[in-house]
Amino acid sequence: MSAEATNPEAHPEARPELRRRGRTRLDLRRLGRAALLGPTSRDRLPDAIGHVAEAHRAHHPDADLSILRRAYLLAETSHRGQMRKSGEPYITHPLAVTLILAELGAETTTLTASLLHDTVEDTDVTLDQVRAEFGDEVCFIVDGVTKVEKIDYGAAAEPETFRKMLVATGNDVRVMSIKLADRLHNMRTLGVMRPEKQARIAKVTRDVLIPLAERLGVQALKTELEDLVFAILHPEEYESTRALIAAHAGERDPLPAIADSVRGVLRDAGIAAEVQVRPRHFVSVHRIARTRGELRGSDFGRVLILVGENADCYAVLGELHTCFTPVVSEFKDFIAAPKFNLYQSLHTAVATPEGYVAEVIVRTRQMHRVAEAGVVALGNPYATATPDAAADPDEERVDPTRPGWLSRLLDWQQSAPDPDTFWTVLRAELAQDREITVFRADGGTLGLPAGASCIDAAYAQHGEAAHGCIGARVNGRLTSLSSPLSDGDTVQLLLAQDASSGPAAEWLDHARTPAARIAISSWLEAHPDRAMSTTSAARAPLSVVGARGGGGNAVADLPDATVRLAGCCTPVPPDAVAGFLVRGGAVTVHRIHCAAVAQMRAVGRTSVAVHWRATADCRVTLLAESFGRPHLLADLTEAIAREGVEVVSATVEPPVEQRVRHSYTLQLPDAAGLPALMRAMRDVPGVYDVSRV
């Protein structure tokens, strides 16, 4: 994008990955002269894009470079006369951005759009011209990275620009690839800007662009952006880290010797592998120093092992753990369980006889390409097996690279029309650096940020219908909606049938995803009276008491004895029962498996034989456990009445985490109807269990 250019040598030490790869920084002034004076004959590429062509052919040997030539000529002609603040011709910026992407392995369409990415924004070139000359895909990508007009949006221009880019990224992930490369070049050349503007751009890069680079798996861009932001926002810590790295450069580095030992082990095992030492970038060294305190020589880098096949990764791991002492706590398998940003590798650490601990990364060469370039390494994710097949231009393309986090962003941004809300929530969402996958009861999956609760799962699966969610089963067990979910959990969400049901204000304390928080807040704002009622103080238990009976149709083999059915187990015909003589000459009747039976026998209570009368009526106490919702007590009472059962007494306990317990003592006309009664009570929406007390 039209970023103001700067001193091209600003912060050269903040780019250790270029230094260690042996690359030299482009001479932008020479490149600018080539851009203006290089040959432009039809049979030759302009000298200015020779670097791009060379890098592109390294990844795509058969690529047609003619479209790059045409794109460059249009960009150079359009930007002619424009200069960056550092004095180079403006064309050097799209050239540098395109070179970054070419080195990452981007395909030709991405590079074409990259060369043109500022033409519509900063020149007289129109989208229609781009479409006519280069096709719909290039036009879509260029439009996606074009800023919205500040005249139209004012202070909201930056949030709305990012909203536009995210929506475009949902249809074509290459939009964000160009934006990341664009920001990287602008950050590399930020030195001539005013310090306050440098800080503002660096903060947006830190809060939005770096998390996006991480989530898209473009580690090569992400690590350099981190170092450049670190140098601007934390200059003192940056200088101390630079000094620490410089001091280490003068000391003996144990990692090359460890790498040689690893090569020998793998060679003896017959495993073909490439072993490298990868220095840590500045921010990584700073983090390690804060965690471990004083650093040793092996802390300044890691050993990287590249192999051909997935199985070779585990063979390498076995040899490492056999020939060296493994640090078990450092082992992570991102091959069997890839990260949500496409990253795959085995991570481990081994201790050497000299006492050094070296971190080791094992991956295939294809995994390495994806780890460095992320979605850029996937080429054109929209290429079909039948390229000539007609496609509906109005139909949204299914992006095989779209992870769950991006789908969530696309969903909730529609509910955040206010730019300030969008900007704030976007930063909060991107701050979530891990993702979990949970399984739905119907077999589908949900991608959620780490720490998400059942509330988040409800809104992710059901949208606004989740307002009526009354509970959840996680891995088959009932749990409250506030319960956090773990990777691999199976969640079944229970929805109320009552359309008037709504979320409680307390849900906001447990919602982690923007979609859930925005939906809950909107509902509470639209129903202020309901919002107040959900936060009212807990009430005392509600009791409804009717006429009480005694022993029902139980008869004790003791003349004139008063018979009472025990309230702890409420036996009914044809339960096997036991009777015991208690104070006052009464006989209490328990089910034979009731815990009180053993207690009665232990204290020496006199056992009395008990049997059931021939009459079928009986009394029983049932406990209904449910999720709280409006009209639940009325619905339960109606279900009981439909079965022709009399309510002797009822008690409703105050809700706890939206869970309510109802106790009913009931008089049944026929004990045989008890199973049907319990089924009818379980069928009431919100009731998840009915049991005898």
Descriptive notes:
This protein is α+β, with helices and mostly antiparallel strands. The chain has 27 helices and 22 strands. The strands form 5 sheets. Strands 1, 2, 3, 4, 5 and 6 form a 6-stranded mixed beta sheet that branches. Strands 8-7-11-9-10 form a 5-stranded mixed beta sheet, covered by helices on one side. A hairpin with a 4-residue loop joins strand 7 (435-440) and strand 8 (445-449).
Mean pLDDT: 80
- Seen as an oligomer or otherwise, the chain set is single chain
User: Gap between N and C termini, in Å?
Assistant: 70 Å
Specify the number of helices. Answer: 27
Largest sheet: 6 strands, mixed
Provide the low-confidence segments as ranges. 1-43, 385-400, 533-540, 542-549
User: Total number of β-strand segments?
Assistant: 22
Instruction: Give the proportion of residues in helices.
Output: 40-55%
Question: What is the overall silhouette?
Answer: elongated
Rg from alpha-carbon coordinates: 35 Å
From the helix content, strand content and strand pairing, which structural class follows? alpha+beta
Query: What proportion of the residues form beta strands (DSSP E)?
Result: 15-25%
